[in-house]
Design brief:
By secondary structure, this protein is mostly beta strands. The chain contains 2 helices and 11 strands; from the N terminus they run E-E-E-E-H-E-E-E-E-E-H-E-E.
């Protein structure tokens, strides 16, 4: 029995400092725009950790160190493809902050993040990043309706 399935692997990273700030990205995507954390796709034969370090550098100009996996987000795409987002966080970074074609990046107080227009589902993602008892955000379809589950 074949247990393999088509999967798209991506990552997202919450970068924070000791003053209560987080790095946010105002995503310039027509389908998934708004405030989020930076990240992107895992390339073929690339380790998950190397992928998040590369993506953060490409999208923010920062070099992160010791990213810690803190949860996942997943859902089934059309044609039965599983889409997985590996969630990381770190407070170890260096470099010069710069925006990219993905969107503008800037620091803001974590306490203010929920007050601005977030990318779709980001209010649930924040719980994965911030609450130790929440490790998975699972989106599934039930009788034609999309449901959201945090575990």
């Amino acid at each position: 029995m074949d247990r393999s399935e088509k999967t798209i692997l991506t990552n997202m990273c919450m970068i924070f400092d000791d003053d209560g700030n987080v790095l946010v990205q105002d995503k310039k995507d027509e389908e998934w725009g708004g405030i989020t954390f930076p990240g992107g796709h895992v390339e073929n034969r690339e380790s998950f950790t190397d992928a998040v370090i590369r993506e953060i550098y490409e999208e923010t100009g920062l070099i992160i160190e010791a990213p810690q996996i803190c949860g996942i987000k997943q859902w089934q795409e059309e044609e039965d493809i599983r889409y997985v987002v590996l969630c990381y966080k770190t407070n170890r970074f260096k470099g010069q902050l710069k925006s990219s074609e993905e969107g503008d990046v800037y620091w803001m107080k974590l306490s203010h993040v929920r007050e601005i227009p977030l990318a779709r589902g980001m209010e649930h993602m924040l719980r994965v990043f911030l609450e130790d008892e929440v490790g998975e955000y699972y989106i599934y379809e039930d009788n034609g309706e999309w449901k959201h589950m945090l575990k």
